[in-house]
């Protein structure tokens, strides 16, 4: 368990030691350039995710997926359910890289997406500390396909915040080739856009239809049976929905204090409303897994809001160390509770890494 706290303490201590970054006076946006420390963090967390051994609740199913695709032909791989993920498995199997090749690729994509997203915020180290307990530990180490999809999705959200609809849609569609549920992000572009909403909506509708027809439609019966008819239950779904609802409520109540650009404000406003709506949806729905999987793509809201909370609630021109410590302590408590009391945390314990064995 000590390894998980080591992964958390790196950004937590950096968050306490660093100060708020000023945005560009022209665009109001923060630089997403990755300097030396962030490149080192990408390498570290890629190795942490990529070379883990028997860590995560779905470890066995990913091993079976690798073995299954080994004997397929290239054109057959592209016809499988999630062609992006299956192709990575096939390449790794043909090159004899095993599960490590798949997981290193997945870890790299997720970590790059996370790093770029954090760098787009005024307190990137604080955002990274917020991401460790659930986004990195549970999602990236437990749900490889959705971790990759979310990595691409975070790149898309950064592009959307900069009014680049093309790259937003491109990253989301690429992410959907690893897990079809990523297409749920596409309608947000039309909702969040404050300029040319009709044009954006038309573009997103076309891309959504193409993504649906090529990636989703053939598996709709399976998805419906697995997530709705089977009434899959995700233990802790209400807790996870509640974690998204906390920053959502903060933003809805104190929207002006967070000082997003107009485009960013629309994006996180809709993220907040959807996050709040998912709480009663979890309570009312028998198929909580379907709602829970949708909530995974709303997790970046926690990073976006808590990275701005110290300046939103703190005194002007102060270093806001008290509020930074409060956010770090809150997520340290979340991590402690999950590691010690979550129903499936045993699948993550102890942390093992092939490079250390």
Give the beta-strand count.
0
Beta-strand content = under 5%
From the alpha-carbon coordinates, what is the Rg to the nearest angstrom?
20 Å
Order of helices and strands: HHHHHHHHHHHHHHHHHH
Structural class: mainly alpha
What is the overall shape?
globular
Low-confidence stretches: 210-218, 223-233
What is the average of the pLDDT values?
Answer: 85
Description:
This protein has 357 residues and is mostly helical. The chain is 69% helix and 0% strand. It contains 18 helices and no strands. It has helices at 2-17, 36-50, 59-69, 74-77, 83-94, 98-119, 124-142, 144-161, 165-176, 186-192, 197-216, 220-229, 237-253, 262-284, 288-296, 300-306, 309-313, 321-341. It starts with a helix and ends in a 16-residue tail after the last helix.
Task: Give structural attributes.
mainly alpha
What is shown here, in short?
By secondary structure, this protein is an all-alpha fold.
List the helices and strands and how they pair.
Elements: H1 2-17, H2 36-50, H3 59-69, H4 74-77, H5 83-94, H6 98-119, H7 124-142, H8 144-161, H9 165-176, H10 186-192, H11 197-216, H12 220-229, H13 237-253, H14 262-284, H15 288-296, H16 300-306, H17 309-313, H18 321-341
Helix pairs in contact: 1-7, 1-18, 2-6, 3-5, 5-6, 6-7, 6-8, 7-8, 7-16, 7-18, 8-9, 9-11, 10-11, 10-14, 13-14, 13-15, 13-16, 14-15
